[in-house]
UniProtKB/TrEMBL annotation:
This is RNA polymerase sigma-54 factor. Pfam families: Sigma54_AID, Sigma54_CBD, Sigma54_DBD. GO terms for biological process: DNA-templated transcription initiation. Gene3D superfamilies: Homeodomain-like, RNA polymerase sigma-54 factor, core-binding domain. Belongs to the sigma-54 factor family. Residues 66-86 have a biased composition (Basic and acidic residues). PANTHER family: RNA POLYMERASE SIGMA-54 FACTOR (PTHR32248:SF4). InterPro entries: RNA_pol_sigma_54 (IPR000394), RNA_pol_sigma_54_core-bd (IPR007046), RNA_pol_sigma_54_DNA-bd (IPR007634), RpoN_core-bd_sf (IPR038709). Residues 128-319 form the RNA polymerase sigma factor 54 core-binding domain. GO terms for cellular component: DNA-directed RNA polymerase complex. GO terms for molecular function: DNA binding; DNA-binding transcription activator activity; nucleotidyltransferase activity; sigma factor activity. Residues 50-86 are annotated as: Disordered. It comes from Neorhodopirellula pilleata. Keywords: DNA-binding, DNA-directed RNA polymerase, Nucleotidyltransferase, Sigma factor, Transcription, Transcription regulation, Transferase.
Length: 496
């Protein structure tokens, strides 16, 4: 093989995104609260950015003489992006905005020291009134352990056992007792560790520190129960058969009747297989809708962007006039030009976000009117490409516009992505959303004969009879996603 070194010319097309274009896409993807934080950051970094009086971030309420929110003129030229030149047209346009913006430089647009102090006080109050962190599983067990009068060595091992328990794992003991002892431990040490484990297992919640499911359930059994021994038998030897609904096999091995096994199973359902899970910290996000969907007097839906928290920005006239001043040095002029360019890009990106998000939301609402009127069973199949074609943007723009955005509707607050669903076609060629098929599937299973429940093949036939052609593997997939067990597990043996 011959190798050589040389210079070669090659022509190729490479698509590159300018940093400003990336910024514009990032702002489109932000929800209102994130955008508000971004604007606060930009205002701290760019002294040329000002906000209209009366905006959420402004210290003053403003008056009737303040500029309107829409400060962009109808014949305003689109910002020209030209990294190779001085963007002369843009700066001339910015310098001629006197008629649209405040006539004098007003320091009141900046937050005063008193306002910043008030905001700090409000944030302090919010933190003080915030809900305190709930007690963890380990702390709850340690507090109980401290109240017991036990040997110090046993207590130390018990504390070691408690430290290994995890609420997300249900509070099970996954580490062998012997591994918690030092190497070369004696039989007495192991017996002491077993005693420590029994003490931990006697604490609340009942069933904690069990080594497996059987031990967890047995720890929760009350010896005074009338069927205590039979429940123990089922737990120790037939848990798998119970899970698979193989009641006849259990009956054959234990001589329990089917009815008796079902009653015992109901008692077992009252036990908690994951006693430590109650101490898991659940995160509930604070959802703030970016879009409000209202119904007007004619019964038509109207989309309104809820961006009251997003201030209307403009470029400081002081710096625009400073740019024209005769004593403005070249270094200062270059600094102002850079900041003006960054500020205008931010303003245009926010306006573009408002326009795109509104158009996308209107197109979604128009397509999903039946869903909004009638409920989930009437949702229509919808792909992002359909909305992109209707709005006239790229599909990735739609994806960014709906990402992490919520809409307040008469049916509650919903994520915008909820309106995008796949589907199939009926025998008549009508599009049907997968959500509709899932609802039909649930309805069939709810109404089936439990003595002979539908198999997945039978469900396919039933759906076909309703005009929905679906593959068996699809039925199986959605049945599992919906948490519906197989036909064998759904069978009620007492009816046979």
């Amino acid at each position: 093989m011959r190798m050589s070194v040389g210079l070669h010319a090659r022509q190729s097309q490479v698509q590159k995104l300018a940093p400003r274009m990336i910024q514009s896409m990032e702002i489109l993807q932000m929800h209102a609260l994130a955008l508000q934080e971004r604007i606060e950051q930009e205002m701290n970094e760019n002294p040329l950015l000002e906000q209209l009086s009366g905006d959420p971030l402004s210290p003053d309420d403003g008056d009737d003489d303040s500029p309107s929110k829409d400060i962009r003129s109808e014949d305003e030229k689109e910002l020209v992006v030209d990294n190779d030149h001085d963007n002369k047209d843009d700066f001339e346009r910015l310098l001629n905005m006197d008629s649209e913006l405040p006539s004098t430089f007003d320091d009141s647009f900046r937050r005063s020291a008193n306002r910043m102090s008030e905001e700090a006080d409000r944030r302090h109050d919010m933190m003080a009134n915030a809900q305190s962190r709930p007690e963890s599983l380990n702390d709850f067990l340690l507090h109980q352990l401290a109240e017991l009068d036990i040997d110090d060595d046993v207590e130390q091992i018990a504390e070691r056992i408690i430290s290994t328990l995890n609420a997300s794992d249900g509070g099970y003991l996954r580490t062998p007792i012997a591994d918690m002892l030092p190497p070369g431990h004696s039989k007495e040490d192991l017996a002491q560790a077993e005693e420590a484990l029994r003490i931990v297992q006697s604490l609340e919640p009942t069933g904690i520190a069990a080594r497996d499911l059987s031990e967890c359930l047995i720890l929760q059994l009350d010896p005074s129960l009338p069927h205590f021994e039979k429940l123990q038998t089922l737990i120790k030897h037939h848990l798998n058969d119970l899970a698979e609904n193989r009641l006849p096999q259990i009956s054959k091995k234990t001589n329990f009747t089917i009815e008796e096994i079902q009653e015992l199973r109901e008692d077992l359902h009252l036990l908690n297989p994951k006693p430590g899970a109650a101490f898991m910290e659940t995160y509930v996000p604070n959802v703030t809708p970016d879009i409000i969907l209202e119904v007007d007097e004619d019964g038509e839906y109207r989309v309104r962007l809820d961006d009251d928290r997003v201030p209307n920005l403009f470029i400081s006239e002081y710096y625009r006039k400073r740019l024209q001043a005769s004593d403005c040095s070249a270094e200062e002029r270059e600094f102002i030009k850079q900041k003006i360019s960054g500020a205008q890009w931010l303003i245009d990106s926010i306006e573009q976000r408002r326009s795109t998000l509104t158009k996308v939301a209107e197109a979604i609402v128009e397509h999903q009117k039946r869903f909004l009127d009638e409920g989930p069973e009437a949702i229509e199949p919808l792909k992002m490409q359909q909305i992109a074609d209707k709005v006239g943007v790229h599909v990735t723009t739609v994806s960014r516009a709906v990402d992490d955005k919520w809409i307040q509707t008469p049916r509650g607050i919903l994520p915008l992505r909820r309106f995008f669903v796949g589907g199939t076609q009926t025998d008549d060629g009508e599009d049907v959303a997968w959500d509709t098929i899932r609802l039909k599937l649930q309805d069939l299973i709810d109404k089936e004969d439990k003595s002979k429940p539908y198999s997945d093949e039978a469900l396919v036939d039933e759906l076909r009879g309703a005009g929905m052609t679906v593959a068996r593997r699809t039925v199986t997939k959605y049945r599992k996603k919906m948490g519906i067990p197989s036909s064998r597990k759904r069978r009620d043996w007492s009816l046979t």
